[in-house]
Amino acid sequence: MFEKNINTIDIQTIMVLFIVILITSLRVIPHIENFSPLISLAIFSSIHFRNKIFCYIALFLSLWISDFFINNFFYNTSTNIIWFYKGFYWQYFSYLVILILSSFFYGQKISLKSVSILAISSSFIFFFVTNFGFWIISDLYEKNLHGLIQCYIAGIPFIKGTIIGSFFYTYLLFGGYYLLQEKIYFLKRSHINY
What we know:
Radius of gyration: 18 Å
Order of helices and strands: HHHHHHH
Strand content: under 5%
Number of domains: 1
Structural class: mainly alpha
Distance between the termini: 29 Å
Number of strands: 0
Oligomer: single chain
Helix content: over 70%
Low-confidence stretches: none
């Protein structure tokens, strides 16, 4: 009975909801700086979700909800609600670029090598885009090449957490899904090739 009815349920919708809750929770709990599951979510969702709108919903909903909690319950010292923080669009843009890059791997064989390439390249995309954005909106650095280089140098200590988090969560998501789809037949999809 359950197996017959499972085909009428949109498994990817349920997965999106579950992933949004999980990733939002993981991002809100205390962690080392930039050790975040969001890059991994961008990589995972663009390869696993057949309906590409789910990639964007899962990622940007997780990002916005976790930003909302972090900015209003951890950093906000006023009584005003912060819906978006200054310069948020640079971070959001970096995730959009990562989604687009990862979508080129859609339908291809998923391997340790391809997942590793995506994790490391996505970490550097995030680093370069967000630090460039910080340089643009911040008054801390001169608006010239020297100031930009100083901004990137100042961001180097944070890339360690980005890279470690990207590898950890990417392997966790891909490995976890691989094990699940080996055990639960309806999670196997024709476009996902492990």
